[in-house]
Design the sequence.
């Protein structure tokens, strides 16, 4: 049977959801098959448990491996009727069903939120023992002084020991940020002398989002954007004249106003459209009234969603205030903030080293993408995003900051960037904004560009003009070490992104051309395809370059490089110009990297299928098990990666540029927020190994 970790609240309000999510994220990278079990759910039914749903969506768990047991109401009835053993037996049975499918099961106990906290505490300890789980005890630091929180850890530890519970770790959650260091130093270690981790309070987790408010109140959406969820920073009732109302309105406020108060409605709408004025998170029209048709028409251009409530203003306000934010609702910004706090404060490797976990055997798409974030975070780098006014870039930047992945600089007019962020409900805290047109860096960058491009007739005046372009300014930031990498292309062409890098960043000394790869994430492995995005018709020297660069990229991201130089013929079975070119390119690769596993020319089926390989190239160390596929031309590569992506459901991550002295990566203009997050993480990882010098401008 699989082992289990029981996350148990030791005090009320411990915030178990954050601990479960963070622990699952750490476990997911270190165990092949994880499960999640909530023996007692606060939901109306086990099928409605939002935390189970979040675990399924975040870690690719199934209905069989992420489940809730009985409801809190049913558990209470069993306790009252003296049938406590029934709770145990049902929980053990469900745990066993999950454990048969998993290597380790994460169990989340009850929150000690009811009046019978002592009964719940005892119930959690008993369940942990009956399930054979190690326990992580979680103490709440909220509304406690440093000394009180340290004492609470001692009491909790003694209580678990008295119940003969196997303690894996103790955590303190929801601590005042200013008290984290003092509490860490004050907590007395247990007999094992292992660290007790301290996690600060994250106020945004308690803020309800507009989506949570909409669902809780069952409101009718009238108009407005339907993009990523915004947090409700405060609630403002428009009980005064519109102009006066603006004096109390702040960014992120939810505006509650009777539907016939056109003055206040227009004031809030105009405020959101005016730079440097506050932007509401949403508006709720009350009394079942909508404004007159002309005002309603203006509302269709509002920068925030508008809802209709049939209740009066007082009742609606009371209902809205009662809505609480919940991490388990799965809002991306909340999840990002929770995971960022977990990984900043908790050494997942140390914590899980206390268990002997089997190493993962499969590299699933989700595991690869989670691994990118972990590796990027391990050696923090600084990335510049030139397209600072693109909403997708802003949403991605907020998530990356909340997850503590890297430092970020956005380029663009500060007022415009902040205006777009306000309309999109994006929190720019912790992000740097630079306007190339007004930055003190522009003159230095222009001087350097003029020096590097003097042989092309570029003078100082022309260089200053060029540095107004975000791609050139951002690339020069990379070149001169102001940042470690650049990601662009959400609103510009590939040529616009790459051209500055080709002009003055240049290629590495051992590389002749810039090329690209896609990471093709299949159900159980990761393949690397190159070059599917940059070079239309590479010659044999360039093919060899692409192969060597692709093998290096594969190794950098944890893929053991076994290189297949693809052609329409395998081995010595065919001839012709195209086949001979691949054969010569393969020979060049072997000359330059004698220890690299490479085969070519080889057909795709022989490269990937072991049975085909056995008949076509028996004894080959690459055939049938290739991981890096080098296509003979762009036409073949681009069509193949898209065919595999569409027909097999593989996730294509890229293109990832390779061969440059410093990391610059391109986005598709159709990219999603998730694509941007992944590409920034990749660029940060590339920046961790960057040892190149400054380009020569030749």
Sequence:
């Amino acid at each position: 049977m699989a082992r289990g970790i029981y996350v148990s609240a030791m005090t009320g309000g411990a915030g178990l959801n954050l601990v479960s999510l963070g622990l699952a994220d750490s476990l997911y990278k270190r165990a092949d098959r994880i499960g999640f079990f909530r023996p007692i759910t606060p939901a109306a039914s086990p099928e409605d448990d939002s935390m189970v749903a979040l675990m399924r969506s975040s870690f690719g768990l199934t209905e069989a491996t992420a489940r809730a047991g009985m409801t809190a109401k049913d558990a209470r009835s069993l306790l009252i009727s003296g049938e406590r053993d029934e709770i145990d037996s049902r929980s053990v049975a469900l745990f066993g069903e999950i454990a048969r499918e998993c290597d380790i099961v994460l169990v989340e106990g009850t929150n000690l939120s009811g009046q019978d906290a002592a009964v719940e505490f005892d119930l959690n300890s008993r369940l942990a023992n009956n399930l054979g789980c190690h326990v992580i005890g979680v103490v709440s630091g909220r509304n406690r002084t440093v000394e009180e929180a340290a004492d609470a850890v001692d009491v909790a530890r003694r209580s678990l020991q008295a119940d003969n519970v196997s303690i894996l770790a103790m955590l303190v959650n929801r601590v005042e940020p200013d008290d984290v260091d003092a509490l860490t130093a004050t907590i007395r270690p247990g007999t094992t002398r292992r660290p007790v981790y301290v996690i600060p309070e994250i106020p945004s987790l308690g803020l309800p989002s507009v989506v949570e408010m909409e669902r809780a109140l069952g409101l009718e959406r009238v108009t407005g954007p339907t993009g990523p969820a915004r947090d409700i920073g405060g609630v403002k009732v428009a009980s005064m004249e519109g102009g006066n109302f603006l004096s109390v309105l702040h960014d992120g406020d939810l505006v509650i106003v009777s539907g016939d108060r056109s003055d206040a409605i227009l004031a809030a709408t105009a405020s959101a459209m005016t730079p440097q004025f506050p932007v509401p998170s949403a508006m709720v029209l009350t009394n079942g009234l909508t404004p007159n048709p002309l005002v309603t028409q203006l509302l269709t251009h509002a920068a925030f969603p508008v809802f209709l409530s049939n209740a009066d203003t007082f009742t609606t306000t009371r209902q809205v205030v009662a809505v609480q934010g919940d991490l388990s609702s799965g809002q991306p910004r909340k999840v990002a903030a929770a995971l960022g706090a977990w990984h900043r404060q908790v050494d997942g490797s140390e914590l899980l080293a206390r268990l002997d976990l089997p190493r993962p055997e499969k590299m699933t798409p989700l595991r690869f993408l989670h691994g990118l974030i972990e590796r990027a975070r391990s050696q923090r780098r600084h990335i510049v995003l030139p397209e600072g006014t693109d909403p997708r870039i802003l949403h991605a930047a907020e998530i990356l900051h909340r997850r503590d992945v890297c430092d970020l600089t956005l380029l663009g007019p500060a007022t415009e960037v902040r205006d777009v962020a306000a309309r999109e409900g994006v929190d720019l805290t912790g992000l740097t904004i630079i306007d190339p047109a007004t930055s003190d860096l522009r003159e230095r960058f222009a001087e350097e560009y003029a020096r590097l491009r003097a042989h092309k007739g570029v003078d100082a005046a022309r260089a200053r003009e060029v540095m107004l372009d975000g791609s050139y300014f951002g690339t020069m930031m990379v070149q001169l070490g102001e940042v470690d990498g650049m990601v662009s292309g959400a609103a510009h062409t590939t040529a616009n992104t790459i051209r500055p890098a080709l002009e003055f960043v240049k290629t590495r000394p051992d590389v002749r051309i810039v090329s690209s790869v896609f990471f093709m994430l299949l159900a159980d492995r990761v393949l690397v395809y190159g070059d599917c995005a940059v070079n239309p018709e590479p010659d044999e020297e360039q093919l060899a370059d692409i192969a060597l660069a692709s093998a290096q990229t594969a190794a950098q991201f944890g893929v053991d490089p076994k290189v297949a130089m693809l052609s329409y013929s395998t081995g010595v079975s065919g001839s012709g110009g195209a086949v001979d070119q691949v054969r010569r390119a393969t020979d060049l690769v072997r000359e330059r990297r004698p220890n690299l596993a490479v085969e070519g020319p080889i057909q795709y089926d022989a490269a990937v299928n072991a049975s085909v390989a056995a008949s076509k190239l028996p004894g080959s160390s690459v055939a049938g098990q290739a991981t890096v596929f080098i296509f003979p031309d762009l036409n073949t590569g681009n069509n193949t990666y898209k065919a595999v992506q569409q027909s097999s459901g593989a996730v294509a991550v890229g293109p990832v540029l390779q061969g440059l002295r410093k990391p610059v990566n391109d986005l598709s203009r159709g990219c999603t927020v998730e694509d941007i997050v992944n590409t920034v993480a990749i660029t940060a990882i590339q920046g961790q190994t960057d040892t190149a010098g400054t380009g020569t401008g030749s």
Q: What stands out?
A: The chain has a mean pLDDT of 90. Residues 168 and 446 are 57 Å apart (CA to CA). The two ends are 64 Å apart (CA to CA).
